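Bug: token stream looks shifted between consecutive jobs. Job 1:
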Amino acid sequence: MRETIIRNRRAWVPAVLRYNEVPARILLEVCNLSNAEDRQLLRTQEFRQRVAAAVVAALLDYYDEADSETLPPPARTAR
């Protein structure tokens, strides 16, 4: 991830990184809350579970540990 963005010959730090106390290495954008369809999807438990499973699968794939024994048990879902 770049720490600065350059547009129109002007450098700036994205708002999500500006005052972050923890160094960011991954920025995961799942949906856009300004988009009505995305907001509706985010309200469903099924979508949130699918996103969580996809993130876990991607991390395991990235670290080459994607065999069935390393998969975490299914998470209990909050209501």
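Job 2, same session, no restart:
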Amino acid sequence: MASAMLSIASASPSATLSMHECHKGKAKLGSSNLSFNKEGSNPFPNTKSSGRVSMVAAVNVSRFEGIPMAPPDPILGVSEAFRADTNEVKLNLGVGAYRTEDLQPYVLDVVKKAENLMLERGENKEYLPIEGLAAFNRVTAELLLGAENPVIKQQRVATVQGLSGTGSLRLGAALIERYFPGAKVLISSPTWGNHKNIFNDVKVPWSE
């Protein structure tokens, strides 16, 4: 049986048929899709069929309609208000990012030097171990706790590399929820708007 099939993607205002047979053309009809069957049977059992044409309606409904919009971030909102402000003597203190005198992003010289060193070394792009880069984990713990801290000397610290601050907090929240039920997390005030939601999502209690 020679027939032409099509794929339907929701949230598409219209879809175009892709024909498998050389003697068949392409059909497009508003937001409806047509399927032609040489034998006259309907390849779509749940659709209405008339003669040799089966019609499938492409519903213009998004799968994300039931997801509510998140509230605006109070800190990033400062940057939006800053851009909208026409005052010539303004200074954005909302986001921790370096800027030049003409408000362009500024890359520190030490960052450029580190980037050049990485290029000169020509290091590969292999996957890291699941816990991350060992050298990075070691110096991170030493920076936070002090290299001479007894907990480091006694190897009582476990460090795992995460995706910046948000990813690291998510890993920590999952660990607390699974292995330390009932533990409470202390969050600074103010903090980033997503930090509280990270712990709310895994039902870990917190206080400021």
